[in-house]
């Protein structure tokens, strides 16, 4: 009968060798490194709208599918860490037993031939006893073992720096411990609950009280990381967690109230420091404590750490000037509103909804480049503290702004961004409002020029005048006075038609007038003529506006000419403005909101332990050198040999020194003996 084949040991099986190989572990570490870079560069766990604005609808869905918005909790990141734990664990299983045997071993079975073949090996000329040799090695920091062999020879085997092997063990154990800490904090239980249907993210509810029971996590949840915004004077006892395509609510064992939010700024307007005065009440005991937290100075209660993460608008009171664009009246109405809320809006017989977003009291932009070199002008408005350190940039606070939307009955909305203060572009200042119809689009800017009194009154008054037919006739008559008598009538007719067309639709209407009434071969020539005529008539219109509305005189100078040109551009823009009214922020009372991040991270202690092990492993591996020494006494000869697993260069210096010292020690002890 044939003998049954012996089973292959576990550590010799191909799958074991592959999983425990260094190549596999290095590949996993490289993937984790790339993922960590992505998680550092790309802001994590932000609202979906933020990513939609940055990347557009196509790439937003791709990145979301890949889990790049929550890298450290994504399934593929967790799987990589699991395999790294398995790989490193198998590597330790394979290597720790021989390492431990090596640490304990003195290699007392070394033969004379093997000792003689070592790179650092020699015969001592002088006689010395094994006891003296062992004591010398002990003085030099070696631990030794003396072995009397059957052939009558005596071997003194010594070693130093055997703890070097522990460096390998500690370093690999550190990877396991750190990854286990990461796995514990990666919401594995949460993901398991979502897979089984026990936990269901909600993507419809707006308030914590509206979340379904299966979307609410208990206080006993061992690990979570969530965010909540609290307005001054308000409190919260839950945090919100991003999960898949919805949200979850995490109950807290305490209630947090924001008493006051503090913020300091650099001279440029960039935030320098922000802090929250909190009042925390324990739900079970009713005990209340007051603490102030700020960036890098969190508060920990019940194993939950409260971080100062951000700040935002908490529902500020706003005041607007509003002009009905269907009515040329220069006098605005006053609207009062609150940011982060919706209001009904009725204009004529049409119903709209006015939806206000966050109010921003400070907007900091790089003003080191001229406006024509800044893409979309204010598109890159900055609120990021990291931007302060960027070189060759000049950051300037350009004042408060508000984002709002006007939505019609069909549900279609246009978004607007309005700045309260006039902003300098090139040589002049403008009141600006941006418009866009989708989050993926960039703002298109309406720029209303500031007059010599620092207001928009002159432009609005001129707009009212242009829409008054009798006033236009008066302006044309005034402009015609300077024309030669023989062409005055024709000039008056042309000027009236030009101004009337411009009043109806700005430059666009004037272009249509030229296209429809002038032969194609003469349009380019006549276009310049009409624009020169328009500028002259508009100059007269500006004079009439200043006089009619008692706005003061404005001497003919370069600043006035630029204002007139900018006004003509703005008037054209208003004719195409996609809103029933123009709103200009005119005042506010700011209410701030503190963004708090709350985390329960039991795996953090494991990460700290792993970090300590990693430091110890590094020290043991790179700063503790394993060295071995042998003295073999046989047939009246003494063979001395040394070896090291690394740093052979050190032995090139140490070995001759030890040899010389042993020779000298032998000579000193045997000086009275005859040769």
Automatic annotation (TrEMBL):
Compartmental location: Membrane
GO cellular component: membrane
Cross-referenced InterPro entries: Cyt_c_bgen_Ccs1/CcsB/ResB, ResB-like_domain
Organism the protein comes from: Neisseria animalis
GO biological process: cytochrome complex assembly
PANTHER family the UniProt entry points to: CYTOCHROME C BIOGENESIS PROTEIN CCS1, CHLOROPLASTIC
UniProt name for this protein: Cytochrome c biogenesis protein ResB
Transmembrane segment boundaries: 73-93, 166-184, 606-624
ResB-like domain ranges (all copies): 22-655
Zinc recorded as keyword: no
Membrane topology of this protein: Multi-pass membrane protein
Keywords, ordered alphabetically: Cytochrome c-type biogenesis, Membrane, Transmembrane, Transmembrane helix
């Amino acid at each position: 009968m044939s003998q049954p084949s012996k089973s292959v040991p576990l550590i010799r099986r191909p799958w074991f060798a592959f999983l425990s190989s260094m190549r596999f572990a290095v590949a996993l570490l490289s993937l984790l490194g790339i993922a960590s870079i992505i998680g550092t560069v790309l802001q994590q766990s932000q609202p979906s709208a933020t990513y939609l604005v940055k990347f557009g609808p196509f790439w937003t869905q791709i990145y979301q599918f890949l889990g790049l918005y929550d890298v450290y909790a994504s399934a593929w990141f967790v799987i990589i860490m699991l395999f790294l734990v398995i790989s490193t664990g198998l590597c330790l299983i394979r290597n720790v037993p021989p390492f431990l045997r090596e640490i304990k071993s003195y290699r007392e079975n070394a033969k004379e031939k093997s000792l003689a073949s070592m790179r650092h090996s020699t015969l001592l000329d002088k006689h010395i006893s094994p006891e003296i040799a062992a004591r010398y090695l002990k003085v030099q920091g070696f631990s030794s073992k003396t072995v009397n062999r059957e052939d009558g020879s005596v071997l003194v085997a010594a070693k130093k720096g055997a703890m070097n092997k522990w460096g390998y063990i500690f370093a690999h154990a550190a990877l396991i411990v750190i990854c286990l800490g990461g796995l514990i904090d990666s919401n594995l239980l949460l993901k398991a609950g979502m897979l089984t249907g026990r936990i269901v993210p909600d993507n419809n509810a707006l308030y914590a009280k509206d979340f379904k029971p299966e979307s609410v996590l208990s206080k006993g949840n061992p690990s979570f990381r969530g965010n909540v915004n609290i307005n001054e004077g308000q409190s919260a006892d839950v945090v919100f967690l991003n999960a898949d395509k919805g949200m979850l609510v995490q109950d807290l064992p305490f209630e947090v109230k924001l008493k006051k939010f503090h913020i300091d700024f650099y001279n440029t307007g960039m935030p320098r420091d922000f802090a929250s005065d909190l009042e925390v009440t324990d739900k079970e005991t009713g005990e209340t404590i007051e603490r102030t937290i700020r960036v890098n100075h969190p508060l920990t209660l019940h194993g939950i750490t409260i971080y100062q993460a951000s700040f935002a608008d908490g529902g500020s009171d706003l005041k607007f000037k509003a002009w009905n664009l269907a009515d040329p009246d220069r006098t605005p109405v006053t609207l009062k509103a609150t940011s982060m809320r919706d209001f009904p809006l009725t204009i004529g017989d049409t119903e709209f909804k006015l939806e206000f977003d966050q109010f921003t009291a400070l907007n900091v932009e790089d003003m080191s480049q001229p406006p024509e070199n800044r893409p979309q002008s204010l598109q890159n408005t900055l609120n990021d503290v990291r931007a302060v350190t960027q070189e060759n940039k000049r950051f300037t606070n350009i004042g408060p702004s508000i984002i709002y939307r006007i939505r019609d009955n069909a549900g279609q909305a246009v978004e607007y961004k309005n700045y309260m203060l006039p902003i300098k572009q090139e040589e002049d200042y403008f009141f600006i409002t941006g418009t866009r119809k989708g989050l993926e689009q960039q703002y298109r800017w309406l720029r209303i020029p500031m007059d010599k009194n620092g207001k928009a009154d002159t432009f609005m008054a001129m707009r009212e005048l242009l829409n008054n037919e009798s006033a236009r006739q008066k302006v044309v008559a005034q402009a015609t006075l300077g024309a030669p008598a023989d062409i005055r009538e024709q000039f008056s007719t042309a000027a009236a038609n030009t101004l009337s067309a411009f009043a109806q639709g700005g430059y666009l209407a004037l272009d249509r007038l030229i296209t429809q009434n002038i032969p194609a071969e003469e349009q380019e020539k006549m276009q310049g003529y009409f624009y020169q005529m328009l500028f002259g008539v508009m100059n007269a219109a500006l004079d009439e506006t200043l006089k009619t509305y008692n706005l003061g005189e404005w001497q003919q100078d370069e600043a006035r000419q630029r204002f007139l040109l900018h006004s003509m551009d703005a008037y054209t823009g208003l004719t195409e403005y996609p809103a029933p009214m123009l709103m200009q922020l005119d005042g506010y009372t700011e209410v701030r909101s503190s963004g708090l991040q709350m985390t329960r991270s039991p795996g953090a202690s494991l990460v700290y332990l792993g970090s300590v092990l990693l430091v110890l492993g590094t020290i043991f591996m790179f700063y503790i050198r394993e060295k071995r020494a042998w003295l073999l006494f046989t047939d009246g000869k003494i063979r001395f040999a040394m070896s090291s697993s690394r740093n052979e260069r050190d032995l090139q210096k140490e070995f001759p020194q030890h040899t010389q010292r042993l020779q000298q020690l032998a000579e000193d002890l045997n000086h009275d003996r005859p040769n």
